């Protein structure tokens, strides 16, 4: 592995690559400017959220990128922490992806808050140890720092130090991920997120998206840099594809549990939300996004090619990631649409609350995605030698 800090050599950058980075950064800036405007004029004027539905679409990219970063960290740990040789060629790119995905997720949750500066201020001056949100913010912030040191150690070829930071980061992010549902469950005691399988579901889903991200962005990185196929790298991607297949089968099981809850109330703690998801207003999202794009299409693509075609693996990865984003949107929104006291037949209480993302929320989400893409392309240019050495 080559370190720029040691060799003082820098990659050759073409004009097309510069234009791509500038274009992605420009689109990101346009989207994120809506977030700045929201902070100035207030979320009441720019967001589609309400007292009944306080969390909007911006929570979805936060959860999506946080879980994606968790999965990337787990897969990179197979090579770094557990010493599995097959996964070692993809460690540098995977660690960098884990770093920028968590940064993107934290940026999303920051712009979702109306007074984000209070988080850092009061988190340090008056930490509340019984606050699940405080723990999650602290854990993910520390994880981001550990991953940064991990990547820097890899760049400096200090493998032992990199392994230490990788272990700490793995433990830290796993703690945060296993308690992901607790943040949502505390929001008005919504039973939609209190199912017993949720911690394992989040961890499995995170690892699944991590594998999908590696398959997709490794292929994009090779294409972007014009790299020739590498035997060790191909073996690592095939191993990732096998792990991806196993996880798809696991998520297929959890999806079946959701379907059971949607049609048979006795199998779930919140039958109203599950019914809305599986056969109500969100059924299109569920069957096309969560079932089709996230699980069945990737599984069919891999089984049809036996996981040996890198292009098909990348296609399966992008399908899974799109479906996973829809899944996280449903996970965040659907439970909030069930009125708190629906079981008491309160007069004039609607059957469901309503929520539609505002232009500002959509633009901020789009800007965050372009921020991630710009960071990825920038990393492919700057760390090309690290990825290929």
Structural summary, described in words:
Helix 10 (198-225) crosses helix 14 and helix 12 crosses helix 13. The chain has a single domain (4-388), classed as Formate dehydrogenase/DMSO reductase domain (Formate dehydrogenase/DMSO reductase fold, Up-down Bundle). It has helices at 4-7, 15-41, 43-46, 59-80, 91-112, 117-125, 132-155, 159-178, 180-185, 198-225, 231-263, 271-279, 283-305, 310-333, 359-382, 384-388. Mean pLDDT is 88; it is low at 1-8. The protein has 389 residues and is mainly α. It is 73% helix and 0% strand. The chain is globular, with a radius of gyration of 21 Å.
Q: How would you spell out the order of helices and strands?
A: HHHHHHHHHHHHHHHH
What's the CATH superfamily, by name? Formate dehydrogenase/DMSO reductase domain
Q: What is the tally of beta strands?
A: 0
> Strand portion, in percent?
under 5%
Structural class category? mainly alpha
Cα(first) to Cα(last) distance is 5 Å
How many domains would you count in the coordinates? 1
Q: Radius of gyration over alpha carbons?
A: 21 Å
Mean pLDDT: 88
**What would the principal axes of the Cα set say about the shape?**
globular
What are the segments in which pLDDT stays under 50 over at least 5 consecutive residues?
Answer: 1-8
Specify the number of helices.
16
Largest sheet: none
Report helical residue fraction. over 70%
Supply the CATH class: Mainly Alpha
At CATH level 3, the topology is Formate dehydrogenase/DMSO reductase fold
CATH architecture, please?
Up-down Bundle
């Amino acid at each position: 592995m080559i370190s720029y800090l040691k060799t003082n050599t820098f990659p050759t950058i073409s004009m097309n690559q510069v234009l791509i980075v500038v274009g992605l950064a420009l689109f990101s800036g346009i989207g994120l400017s809506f977030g700045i405007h929201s902070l100035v004029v207030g979320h009441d004027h720019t967001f589609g959220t309400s007292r009944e539905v306080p969390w909007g679409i911006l929570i979805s990219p936060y959860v999506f990128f946080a879980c994606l970063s968790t999965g990337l960290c787990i897969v990179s740990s197979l090579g770094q922490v557990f010493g599995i040789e097959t996964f070692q060629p993809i460690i540098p790119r995977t660690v960098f992806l884990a770093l920028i995905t968590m940064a993107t997720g934290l940026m999303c949750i920051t712009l979702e808050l109306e007074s984000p500066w209070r988080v850092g201020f009061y988190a340090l001056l008056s930490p509340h140890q019984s606050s699940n949100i405080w723990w999650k913010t602290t854990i993910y912030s520390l994880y981001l720092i550990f991953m940064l040191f991990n990547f820097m150690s890899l760049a400096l070829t200090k493998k032992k130090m990199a392994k230490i930071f990788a272990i700490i980061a793995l433990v830290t992010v796993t703690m945060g991920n296993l308690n992901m549902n607790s943040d949502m469950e505390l929001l008005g005691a919504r039973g939609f997120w209190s199912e017993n399988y949720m911690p394992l579901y989040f961890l499995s889903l995170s690892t699944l998206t991590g594998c999908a991200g590696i398959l997709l962005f490794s292929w994009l990185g090779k294409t972007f840099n014009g790299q020739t196929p590498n035997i060790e790298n191909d073996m690592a991607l095939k191993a990732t594809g096998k792990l991806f297949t196993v996880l798809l089968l696991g998520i297929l099981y959890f999806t079946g549990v959701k379907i059971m809850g949607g049609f048979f109330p006795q199998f779930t703690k919140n039958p109203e939300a599950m019914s809305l998801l599986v056969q109500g207003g969100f059924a299109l999202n569920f069957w096309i996004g969560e079932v089709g794009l996230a699980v069945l299409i990737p599984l069919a693509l891999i089984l049809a090619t036996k996981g040996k075609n890198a292009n098909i693996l990348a296609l399966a990865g992008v399908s899974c990631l799109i479906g996973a984003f829809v899944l996280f949107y449903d996970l965040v929104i659907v439970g909030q649409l069930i009125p708190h006291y629906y079981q008491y037949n309160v007069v004039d209480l609607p059957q469901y609350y309503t929520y539609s993302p505002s232009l500002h929320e959509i633009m901020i989400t789009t800007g965050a995605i372009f921020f991630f893409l710009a960071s990825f392309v920038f990393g492919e240019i700057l760390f090309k030698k690290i990825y290929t050495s």
